[in-house]
């Protein structure tokens, strides 16, 4: 059976690698983002379908799924990848700033999962991108750490709720991955790592493809760390 994957935040970084890896594996890919320039270019380069959806806006998400219904698109894979990080002094962190991160990272994961699970007629795979920052914190990362910790809890609760629908739900928790600001890492930064390098978006995308396999029905509710051993370093 041919698969259809929906990827959030697919225009850049790990999301872009997910789009490319799933397309190369013969999966039809639909992805959403707000970076139209990168999104449209990637859609053309990969023959994928791109839609502008601001995931912090529930009404924009509903409009997107109405369009999917009109086009009779159903899904077999969802990857809740979109995420933002804000590093802000905790004593100055406002409710609004905290809420912005929760809306982008956590609420979008809830909303996309619910909409997609209703549109997975033959069951499927939901994969949530968490982070090692959920359990290894640095100062001033409260909003991000809270959002990712909640994504892990949401993952195993949804895994139980969606089991009767033949849908598995797992999380991937990357450590340092070379995207965005991290592309400026130096050789010294890489050398601090037990693997002598930080991760690449492809490392995460290959794990997601493994979890998305139709035959991986017995992996459910898991959180798989992919960090080259960083969280095991003394
Ligand atoms: P990037 O910032 O490289 O890419 C995220 C994409 O999401 C961008 O295209 C961004 O657009 C888009 N986006 C941001 N806000 C919204 C929104 N409201 N609606 C729709 N799209 C939006 O992120 P990464 O690839 O680094 O991270 C991907 C995931 O992996 C995140 O969940 C992150 O927390 C997680 N992760 C990343 C790690 C890392 O080291 N990189 C480590 C651990 C986890 P624009 O660029 O225009 O803002």
Q: In CATH terms, what is the fold-level topology? A: Rossmann fold
Q: List low-confidence stretches.
A: none
Cα radius of gyration in angstroms: 17 Å
Percent helix range: 40-55%
**Shape summary:** globular
Number of E-state strands: 7
CATH structural architecture:
3-Layer(aba) Sandwich
Quick one: biggest sheet?
Answer: 7 strands, parallel
Strand order of the largest sheet: 3-2-1-4-5-6-7
Describe this structure as you would to a colleague.
The protein is of the alpha/beta class and 234 residues long. The chain has one domain (4-232): Rossmann fold. It is 41% helix and 16% strand. The chain is built from seven helices and seven strands, in the order E-H-E-H-E-H-E-H-E-H-E-H-H-E. It has helices spanning 13-24, 36-46, 58-70, 95-117, 142-162, 187-191, 201-212, and strands spanning 4-8, 28-33, 49-52, 77-80, 124-129, 167-174, 223-226. A seven-stranded parallel β-sheet has the order 3-2-1-4-5-6-7, sandwiched between helices. The termini are far apart. The mean pLDDT is 96. NADPH dihydro-nicotinamide-adenine-dinucleotide phosphate binds next to helix 1. NADPH dihydro-nicotinamide-adenine-dinucleotide phosphate binds at residues 9, 11-15, 33-35, 54-56, 81-84, 104, 129, 131, 174, 176-177, 179-180, 182.
